[in-house]
Structures are given as C-alpha cells and as structure tokens.
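in:
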C-alpha cells in the first residue's frame, strides 16, 4: 500500500486551476474567520454551481475572477454572510436560497 501526501498549497492551487468538468456536492470554507471564499473560481469556462449548501459561519460563499459561468441554481446560501464577489455573477441564477439582510 502506498501512502500519498497531499500537495502543498501552490501545487494544489495549480491543480484546481487545471480542472475541467469538476463536480462536487460537498465543501466548506476552511476557516470561517478568513476573508477567503468557500469557493473561488478563476479563468474557468462553462462553470455550473448547483445544489451547494453554505456551512454555518461561512463568510463569503463564492468569488469569481475571470471565469465564464453557466448556471448557479438550487444553492442554499442562507448561512453565509455574503453570497458572492462580484455581486453580479456571470451565471444564470435560479432557485437559490440567499442570506437574509
């Protein structure tokens, strides 16, 4: 049996940048006290985010920088303090449960 160690942060960031057709149903912000988003997208295309749930204490749920989106649907972001940066996302959005002011 071989044991694999997880990649260091820069290697992990590069791996995430190179993903295509990635699908995930689970995730949470590593530390709710940081300004980082629970999900950050950069330079992607045809991205869809569906059926995600923000964990209790999530600050910013989604940060998009240069990604071209398709769908942002069916997400429960009611526990997040903020939905996204920028506020206007490059996605068609529908049926999302948003944080209450």
């Amino acid at each position: 049996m071989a044991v694999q160690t997880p990649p260091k942060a820069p290697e992990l960031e590069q791996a995430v940048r190179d993903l295509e057709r990635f699908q995930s149903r689970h995730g949470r912000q590593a530390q709710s006290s940081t300004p980082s988003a629970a999900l950050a997208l950069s330079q992607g295309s045809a991205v869809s985010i569906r059926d995600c749930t923000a964990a209790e204490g999530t600050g910013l749920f989604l940060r998009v920088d240069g990604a071209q989106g398709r769908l942002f649907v069916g997400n429960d972001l009611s526990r997040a303090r903020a939905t996204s940066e920028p506020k206007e996302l490059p996605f068609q959005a529908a049926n999302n449960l948003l944080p209450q002011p």
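note: Strands lie at 37-42, 45-50, 60-65, 68-73, 82-85, 92-94.
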